[in-house]
Design goal:
Order of helices and strands: EEEEEEEEEEEEEEEEEEEE
CATH class: Mainly Beta
Oligomer: single chain
Strand content: 35-45%
Number of strands: 20
Number of domains: 1
Distance between the termini: 16 Å
CATH superfamily: Exo-inulinase, domain 1
Radius of gyration: 18 Å
Mean pLDDT: 92
Low-confidence stretches: 1-18
Helix content: under 10%
Length: about 280
């Protein structure tokens, strides 16, 4: 299948009062969101500095393990955010962790994430619009918890209510004080907010650097991992290194921007591709 590089075209979407002028892009061929040279398909967003990035939280390195990559330093919270918005696609991302960790997560598990269906104003996870992210659905990247699904709420207007996406999942029975894990074939439950951990997320997971779980699918530090995500209408399916780890349906959001987080840990992204769905 032919691969193309994507460059910005204007867009505006309607969600709880927020508008985009153009319809979302549905890939008909492979779209490479990382062109190997620069961050031109993305907007940069950093807490307290907005679209300015004086400390170079986000940059492109010419070579890591033999190829160019997007470097995320992790020093400040924020994200690179696609200028365009998308729907109905298969997303393939390759990532690996770096060495650096930063306060307040200096000694915590290395943490980042891929946010799907990002909607609303930049920074709308805080009511003053200086938050790090946007209302969205997260594929969590964190040591021991990569593949967790998190519903990220956001604000539509200053002083207005915080609104979260909602979903339907099949969790295993709830254990007091523990986040639920995805269990294929279990009874469906509606979630107006919250999260669904991947099926192998340790119940006694520890937020410490280098954590590896008893059913760990993430490769050892310094090796590349492959994330695959299906976004098909109101459904998302998550894979990590070839294993299906999570799934949800009935999502209240079906389209939006893609965000790649900075959250206290250095990491690198190389392949970032949107593929057409095979129906």
């Amino acid at each position: 299948m032919k691969t193309t590089s994507l460059f910005p075209i204007g867009a505006l979407l309607i969600f709880v009062g927020y508008t985009f002028a153009a319809p979302p892009i549905t890939p008909t061929q492979v779209i490479s969101l990382f062109n190997g040279k620069d961050l031109s398909p993305f907007d940069v967003w950093v807490v307290d500095s907005g679209h300015s990035d004086p400390d170079h939280v986000f940059s492109v390195v010419e070579q890591i393990d033999g190829a160019p990559a997007i470097r995320v330093s992790g020093q400040h919270y924020g994200a690179v955010i696609t200028k365009d918005h998308f729907t109905n696609y298969r997303l393939i991302v390759e990532f690996r962790w770096g060495l650096l960790t930063w306060s307040p997560r200096r000694n915590s598990a290395r943490d980042s994430g891929i946010l799907l269906h990002g909607q609303g104003r930049f920074g709308n996870t805080a009511d003053d619009f200086n938050g790090p992210w946007m209302r969205s659905v997260e594929y969590q990247l964190i040591e021991g918890g990569s593949g967790d699904l998190i519903l990220v709420g956001g604000f539509d207007a200053q002083g207005g209510p915080r609104i979260s996406p909602s979903m339907t999942c099949t969790p295993e029975p709830k254990i007091e004080g523990k986040a639920q894990r995805w269990k294929p074939g279990a009874p469906s439950v509606q979630f107006p907010s919250g999260r669904m951990n991947w099926y192998g997320h340790d119940l006694d997971w520890k937020d410490v650097t280098g954590y590896r779980g008893s059913q760990e699918l993430e490769r050892p530090w310094g090796e590349w991992n492959r994330v695959e995500i299906i976004c098909d209408g109101d459904r998302v399916v998550y894979w990590l290194n070839g294993t299906k780890v999570n799934e949800a349906s009935g999502l209240s959001v079906r389209e939006g921007k893609l965000l790649f987080q900075s959250e206290g840990a250095e990491l690198f992204f190389r392949k970032i591709e949107l593929h057409p769905l095979i129906r």
